[in-house]
């Protein structure tokens, strides 16, 4: 119960700084650049590899069904809808939770256990400015960009498998990718990744900075943060999909 109250207090504190414009007068921009390097380049390779093979498997299962239905003109648009609306944002968020969220939690938890956070308070340095806000903003900036790379990789790998196994010309595939509401769906996917980024970064940082119990607490906080982030991502994904992507039938009618 005490740990829950501490997390709620830190959540209120972090949100008050995050959405208060004048708080950025003392913002550590050098720390932001360091966190951007941690979040972006370190996660790009695994994001693209995961997107490549997931899209290969997904296309392998989906395209042959459309061949049976003689609906090749819908292959590119259906795959693009699947990647833009669900697969790429969720997969990229899950990768970021495992790669970056766990790192943030364990790093901050170790600083708490070794009393480095107390040293910052003694030196008059606000840990929210110095440690938490740069990490949150770095994730908010980089997750939408990683999602774009994931989408690009998914479409390329899908066109590759369609051409290799089913002799679907890449020009025909990409012509069907540009369906009528593509840009609206891209914008909604961008908004979805922003929400995911806020959940991942805030939960990871707060769970790390409220760690108690020594080295054992570091492992417990990291595990709890990863599980909590995953739960929030799946729940918020359902809510956002229901609110933003409930026009699937109308989309196919437009097509």
Topology:
Elements: H1 2-18, H2 29-68, H3 75-113, H4 116-122, H5 127-166, H6 170-177, H7 182-209, H8 214-244, H9 248-254
Helix pairs in contact: 1-5, 1-7, 2-3, 2-5, 3-5, 3-6, 3-7, 3-8, 5-7, 7-8
Membrane topology: Multi-pass membrane protein
Subcellular location: Membrane
Pfam families: MlaE
Structure in words:
It is a single chain. The protein is mainly α. The chain has one domain (2-254). It contains nine helices and no strands. Helix 1 (2-18) crosses helix 5 (127-166). Belongs to the MlaE permease family. It is found in: Membrane. Keywords: Chloroplast, Membrane, Plastid, Transmembrane, Transmembrane helix, Transport. Its main location: membrane. It comes from Rhodomela confervoides.
How many H/I helices? Answer: 9
Summed over residues and divided by their number, the pLDDT gives a mean of: 86
User: Which stretches of 5+ consecutive residues score pLDDT under 50?
Assistant: 248-255
- Biggest sheet record: none
Outline: elongated
In short:
By secondary structure, the protein is an all-alpha fold. It has one domain (2-254).
Please tag this protein with its features:
single chain; mainly alpha; 9 helices; 255 residues; 85% helix; disordered C terminus
